Amino acid sequence: MKHILARVLLPAVALSVVLAGCKSGGEQSNTFRIGVVTSLTGSAAAFGQAHKNGYTVAVEELNAKGGVLGKKIELVYYDDQSKPDQAVQGVTKLVDQDHVPIILGAYSSENTRAIVPVVTQKQVPLIIPTAVADNVVQTGSPWVFRICAGSGSFAASTLDFLKNNGDPRTMAIVYENTNFGQSNDKSMREEATAAGVKIVDEEAYQASSPDYKALLQRVKAKNPEVIYFASYLLDATTLMRQAAEVGLNPKYYTSAGTGFAAAEFPTKDKGAGAYAEYTFSVSQWLPTAKWKGSKEFDEAFTKLTGAHPAYHAMEAYAALLVAVAAIQKAGNAQPAGIRDALKAVDLPETPFGPIKFDEHGQNAHPLLITQILDGQYKVVWPKAAAEAEPVIPAPAWNKRKGL
Predict the structure, then answer these.
(1) Which CATH number, 3.40.50.10330, 3.40.50.720, 3.10.310.10, 3.40.50.2300, labels domain 152-283+367-399?
(2) Three-state secondary structure of the chain
(3) 3.40.47.10, 3.40.50.2300, 3.10.129.10, 3.90.550.10: CATH of 25-149+290-356
(4) Over the stretch 291-341, which tens digit does the pLDDT of each residue have?
(5) pTM for the complete prediction?
(6) Is a pLDDT exceeding 70 seen at residue 82?
C-alpha cells in the first residue's frame, strides 16, 4: 500500500514543484524577486561590486519599510563576467528560469546594448543604472528605461565647463574601442565641433592593454589643450601613469566619468594615486550632492563597506528605488503593468535627484564636473554647486610633488 501511495503522490508533488516554478518571480510566497545583471567578475568587477553594495543598501532600507506589495524584496544576481554574451545569457536565465518580472542592469554600455534586444523580445522591463552610451535608449524599445545621463550630456556638460573656464580651442579624444568608448567619442566630436573646438586627434585603444605609451606619444605630438578620456578604471590608471612617463602635459585632463570617477581612482592601492591629481571628470553624483537622502546613503554605504561611494553605487541604489515605486504603482508582478508604471514614474525627490522618464525612457539627470584635489573629488562646476575653484592648467609632471 505504501508503494502504491508513493507512486501516486510523487508525480503530484513533482507537478506542484513545476507549477510553483512557473510563477512570476514577484509571486513567490515569501519574497518579491527582482533580477540583476552586473559584472561581479572580469575587468569591470570593481563597478559590479559597487552596484551590488548600492543594491544591498537599498534592499535593507526598503525591506525595513515593508518591502513591496507586502513581500520582502529578494535580488537574484547574474554575474555577466564583464562579457556581453554572458549578459545575454543572464537575461535569459533570469526571465525563463527565475521568472523575474523586471531586470536592473547591466553595468557597461557594451553589455547593456547586448541585452536590450533580449528584454524587448521577452517583454520584460529593464532599468539601466549606469550605461552611458546613448544607443542603449535609441532602439525605440518601450521596455527600456535609463536613470543616468548619457554620453551626449557628458560631452555637453564638459564643453560648458571648458567654455566658462579658459575656453580652450583644441582637443584630443582617447577612448576604449567598445560601445561605451565609441559613443563618447562620437558625442564629444559632434559637440566639440559645434562649439568651435578643433579635434586634433582621436585615438581608440583595446581595453586592458599593458602599454599605451605609443598612443600617448601620438597625442603629445598634436599638443592639444584638452584631452578627453573614455576609459574604465584599469585603463584610466595605466593611462595617467604612462602620461607622466611620456611627459604629456595638456592644460586639462578631462573624462567621461567612469574610471576617472571611480572611488578607487584617486587611491594608491587600487587606482592612479597621485597620478590622478588635477583630472576633471563628469560625475552623476557625489556624497556631497544637495539632493535629499544623499548624506544618509553615504553613511549607510560607508558603514557597509568601510569606504565612501562613487556615483555607480548610487545609480544602483536609485534604480532599485525606481523599480519598487513602479511595482507598487502597478500593484502586481506583471511585466507589462510594471512597464506602464515606469512610464508614469515621477519622483521629484530622490538621493539621485528628480527621476522622470521621457518618451524614449530617458531620465533628465543633471551632471556635475569634478576635479581631484588633494586626493578628493571636488565639485568645480556648475558654479552654483561648486565646492572648490578648478586648478587650471594642470601642473606639468616634472613640477608635481609626491610622484
Answers:
(1) 3.40.50.2300
(2) CHHHHHHHHHHHHHHHHHHHHHCCHHHCCCEEEEEEEECCCCCCHHHHHHHHHHHHHHHHHHHHCCCECCEEEEEEEEECCCCHHHHHHHHHHHHHCCCCCCEEECCCHHHHHHHHHHHHHHCCCEEECCCCCHHHHCCCCCCEEECCCCHHHHHHHHHHHHHCCCCCCEEEEEEECCHHHHHHHHHHHHHHHHCCCEEEEEEEECCCCCCCHHHHHHHHHHCCCEEEEECCHHHHHHHHHHHHHHCCCCCEEEECCHHHHCCCCCCCCCCCHHHHCCCEEEECCCCCCCCCCHHHHHHHHHHHHCCCCCHHHHHHHHHHHHHHHHHHHHCCCCHHHHHHHHHCCEECCCCCCCEEECCCCEECCCCEEEEEECCEEEEEECHHHCCCCCCCCCCCHHHCCCC
(3) 3.40.50.2300
(4) 999 999 999 999 999 999 989 999 999 999 999 999 999 999 999 999 999
(5) 0.83
(6) yes
